[in-house]
Amino acid sequence: MHAVLNTIMIYAKDMKRTAAFYQEHFGLQTTGNVIEGLIELTSQPSGTTLLIHQAAKSLKLGQASVKLVFSVQDVEGFKIHSAERGLVFGSTHQANGYEFANAKDPDKNTVSISSRAFR
What we know:
Layout lengths: L6 E6 L2 H12 L11 E5 L6 E6 L12 E5 L3 H10 L8 E2 L4 E6 L5 E5 L5
């Protein structure tokens, strides 16, 4: 029996703002509608689903134990394009044959762009 990871859920203080962030900066597709308490975004062509759920007032956001990693061929080019639209990534780090850079979403979750998938 196999399990397939195809959905990630993140908690947000402002669900619509967070959904708009992922739509604008990473090209995820969404209607933006809240259905059953969730906003669903889809990444093409991978088909991965990102669900945005309303965070409880007691939930402390920004305590990273998960990082969303988006695969891009050109980290520096993506950083320049993102900065023009208001998303600034930190320093580019060199790893074993690939590079990556980190930023934060509106709820202080860490997001990363990485060329690892293309090495």
